[in-house]
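Worked example

This section walks through a single chain of length 158. The input is the sequence exactly as stored; nothing has been trimmed or padded.
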Amino acid sequence: MKKGPKRKEMSERFLDKVLFDTNGMGCWLWLGSKSPKGYGRIGRPGRRHVPMIASRFSYEYFNGEIPEDTCVLHRCDNPSCVNPNHLFLGSLADNIADKVRKGRQPCGEVHICSKLTSENVIDIRRDNRSWAKIARSYNVSTGTIGDIKQGKTWKHLL
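Given that input, the structure is written out below as tokens.
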């Protein structure tokens, strides 16, 4: 019986798909399959339809195991970068805070779920009526008004 060619090791397949430091910033760009948001994907042996994020593979390959429920974040903010020196570990909260700090988290009226404008929020903060009355006039919940008044939401306008 004739055997087909031996499948390359995952590490070899990974390295074949990396373009090293082309942007002068030290990024290693992933040339293989990518998610719609630009994150590299690499197939795992025995798990044909469940690809691994290439930056996670890179971190594990060069730095060791990633603890469960831990995210791999990018210092360079380039989703297709797999340079292990640009990657660091953090919690989901760290990942969200990093995204907000770098301006990649839509907030305020540009957020898809927003019913209010920045002008509305400024007016709500000045309004001395009861939260319930304010909420009715803007067609939002009293909880939304409370969060605005207490500075829990729309923090960028404080």
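What to look for: The chain has a mean pLDDT of 88.
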